[in-house]
Write a structure and sequence with these properties.
heterodimer, A: about 110 residues, five-stranded antiparallel β-sheet, 11 strands, B: about 110 residues, mainly beta, four-stranded antiparallel β-sheet
Chain lengths: ~110, ~110
């Protein structure tokens, strides 16, 4: 079966760094997406990785290891507005997205 | 900016009613998707469409149907609503199928079936 695992909830402090992990087992791999979803709003695209390594985009970075079936999203200099759910999704061999349940990130002052 | 709109943010319906959820995108995208999102579960694909009048079943199509008569519009129909269809419904679109094709989401419709 296909499976995406990520922690249900994490708490971090404003100004700190947090790493949200995602492990996956899917039929085929055509890339991994991270989305951000604020409560009651639409998911919005953050990053896409298809090759191993780190992709940096401002305060956010995303890492992929295909051999380990593992990715993480790194958020630096946390701000209160980063309080949201972070969704990991893998594009399978049919180019369909398989979604994790999301990680709710709580930022405390 | 890609814009995906959904006809309602909140809906309350009764068991057995026929329910229509509409989604419109303004970026000439080929692909459109309907998902439902429930607490503790990842987004689950109900139906998707690669072209006008084309539709494909997703992972949980039972109890739903779809219609795509125009490229920009994708409708989800609950033929006879049931309480287990209470959920958040998200519509998405993408330019085409393939690597790196990002899906863009609408704001969602929160449906309550009584």
């Amino acid at each position: 079966g296909q499976n995406i695992d990520q922690p249900t909830e994490m708490t971090a402090t404003e100004g700190a760094i947090v790493q949200i992990n995602c492990t996956y087992q899917t039929s085929g791999f055509n890339g991994l997406f991270w989305y951000q979803q604020h409560a009651g709003e639409a998911p919005t695209f953050l990053s896409y990785n298809v090759l191993d390594g780190l992709e940096e985009k401002g305060r956010f970075s995303s890492f992929l290891s295909r051999s380990k079936g593992y990715s993480y999203l790194l958020l630096k200099e946390l701000q209160m507005k980063d309080s949201a759910s972070y969704l990991c999704a893998v594009m399978d061999s049919n180019y369909q997205l398989i979604w994790g349940a999301g990680t709710k990130l709580i930022i405390k002052p | 900016d890609v814009k995906v709109t959904q006809s309602s943010r909140y809906l309350v319906k009764r068991t057995g009613e026929k329910v229509f959820l509409e989604c419109v995108q303004d970026m000439d995208h080929e692909n459109m998707f309907w998902y439902r999102q429930d607490p503790g579960l990842g987004l689950r694909l109900i139906y998707f469409s690669y072209d006008v009048k084309m539709k494909e079943k997703g992972d949980i199509p039972e109890g739903y149907s779809v219609s795509r008569e125009k490229k920009e519009r994708f409708s989800l129909i609950l033929e006879s609503a049931s309480t287990n269809q209470t959920s958040m419904y998200l519509c998405a679109s993408s330019l085409s199928q393939g690597l790196r094709e990002t899906q863009y989401f609408g704001p969602g419709t929160r449906l309550l079936v009584l």
